[in-house]
Amino acid sequence: MDARSLDLPARIDTGHAVGMMLVTVSAVFFALAGIFTRSVTAGPWTIACWRGLVGAAIIAAYVLWRARGPHMWSSLHLGLRGWALAVVSTLSSIAFITAFKLTYVANVTIIYATVPFMAAGLERVVLGERTRRSTIVAAVLSLAGVGIMMLGGIGTGSLAGNFMAILMTAGCALYMVLIRKFTDAPVVWTGAVAAFLLFVIGCLITDPLDVTRRDAVLMCAFGVSFAAAVILWTEGTRLVSAAESGLLGSTEVPLAILFAWLFLGELPPAASLVGGGIVIVVIFGYAAWNFRRSVASAAA
């Protein structure tokens, strides 16, 4: 027997552990988005511009490093499908940043947590796939929680932000479905292109240099955090199952709420807490159920 084969289980376990760690750390970086956005005094377009430039540079460097070789440039060809993904991602990012400016961090994060259920509905329309009964039940319950949050936003000035969060979530759900439909598109590269499109659009609408030094530092840090989240999540999901990735990624929700309380002193109204509590229980329950289901299937 080859002595190297004795190390195989250890290598697999190590790779799996590394994957879980990378996805978990990526959730921490994703959870910082609201903190950066609310801490910057500049407008949404200026933030989008700076985050787009810094994020695009880092993600592009990562993609070029991963794709190095004789066929590097051909593997980066977007085509119409890749550009469609980039445009959807760009519009979602604009809504994402605007939502954080107009409503509570907790509201944006919790509404975004319903993206798997929106994606399930779009999969039925775009891909013709049947939706599991458990997914439908979880979607109805989570939407009820979002509805309570929306009602709580009436008269508090956060209703517009809640709507932007819903638009952002719908855009992200469409992006996820299109990734499955356009399997030949270079997904991470489209992320870099989308980030650069944010920079270009932001430059056309606002003056990105008309900012304070403090805002410039925070927006650069936002771009680095965004790029780190994308890269860590990409590498981590290569090593774990989809169910595990979804479960670990769900930690972004309580983390974002915790960070908003610790760093911004932001406590959402009672309606947001009630509706958000419903969504969080549904999301974690659904993710845990999927995880147990995948483990049982693997054991069988």
Instruction: Report how far the terminal alpha carbons are from each other.
Output: 28 Å
**Beta strand %:** under 5%
Structural class: mainly alpha
| SSE pattern | HHHHHHHHHHHHHH
Number of domains: 1
Mean pLDDT across residues: 83
Helix and strand arrangement:
Blueprint: H1 8-31, H2 33-39, H3 44-66, H4 72-75, H5 79-102, H6 105-112, H7 115-126, H8 133-153, H9 159-181, H10 187-205, H11 213-237, H12 242-249, H13 252-264, H14 270-299
Helix pairs in contact: 1-11, 1-12, 1-13, 2-11, 2-13, 3-5, 3-10, 3-11, 5-9, 5-10, 6-9, 6-13, 6-14, 7-9, 8-9, 8-14, 12-14
Question: What is the compact description of this entry?
Answer:
With 300 residues, the chain is mostly helical.
Can you offer a commentary on this structure?
The protein is mainly α and 300 residues long. The protein has one domain. The protein is 80% helix and 0% strand. The protein is built from 14 helices and no strands. α8 (133-153) runs antiparallel to α14 (270-299). The longest helix is centred in the C-terminal third of the chain and has 30 residues, at 270-299. The protein is globular, with a radius of gyration of 20 Å.
